[in-house]
């Protein structure tokens, strides 16, 4: 699981660096709304996750959770943070 997150974060960092035209990730880094584009996505998807949880729709819960994690990693990259910032914060809570 951690490899999946690490690999995804590496791809996000690559898109941030190279900004390919056909990349959704790159479009978030260059969006005219700036960071608000990714913040709005996080808000929308969190609402969708809440609705899926209320409906006990397990497939949708997994789908929306993955959308949230992806956009959260984009936000971390946007802030020049990385997975270690997240790992450290979680580790301190143990
Ligand atoms: N994990 C993701 C990922 N999760 C979500 N998304 C995109 O995020 C957007 C979500 O916006 P929306 O909720 O409006 O989309 P939607 O499908 O209508 O929404 P739902 O109804 O599904 O919730 C969609 O365009 C998805 O394609 C993602 N886009 C990219 N990735 C990863 O990033 C990698 C690089 O992608 P590119 O940057 O596009 O090359 C990919 O290989 C993936 O691993």
From TrEMBL:
Its EC number is 3.6.1.31. One of its GO terms (biological process) is L-histidine biosynthetic process. The gene is hisE. It comes from Haladaptatus litoreus. Belongs to the PRA-PH family. It holds the Pfam family PRA-PH. It comes from the Archaea. Keywords: Amino-acid biosynthesis, ATP-binding, Cytoplasm, Histidine biosynthesis, Hydrolase, Nucleotide-binding. Pathway: Amino-acid biosynthesis; L-histidine biosynthesis; L-histidine from 5-phospho-alpha-D-ribose 1-diphosphate: step 2/9. This is Phosphoribosyl-ATP pyrophosphatase. Its main location: cytoplasm. It is found in: Cytoplasm. The keyword Cytoplasm applies. The keyword Nucleotidyltransferase does not apply. It catalyses: 1-(5-phospho-beta-D-ribosyl)-ATP + H2O = 1-(5-phospho-beta-D-ribosyl)-5'-AMP + diphosphate + H(+). PANTHER family: HISTIDINE BIOSYNTHESIS BIFUNCTIONAL PROTEIN, HISTIDINE BIOSYNTHESIS BIFUNCTIONAL PROTEIN HIS7. GO terms for molecular function: ATP binding; phosphoribosyl-ATP diphosphatase activity. GO terms for cellular component: cytoplasm.
């Amino acid at each position: 699981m951690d490899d999946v997150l690490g690999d995804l974060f590496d791809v996000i960092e690559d898109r941030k660096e190279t900004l390919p035209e056909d990349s959704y990730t790159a479009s978030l880094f260059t969006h005219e709304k700036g960071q608000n584009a990714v913040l709005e996505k996080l808000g929308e998807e969190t609402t969708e996750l809440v609705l899926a949880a209320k409906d006990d729709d397990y497939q949708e819960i997994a789908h929306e959770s993955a959308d949230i994690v992806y956009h959260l990693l984009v936000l971390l990259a946007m802030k020049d943070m990385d997975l270690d910032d997240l790992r450290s914060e979680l580790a301190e809570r143990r």
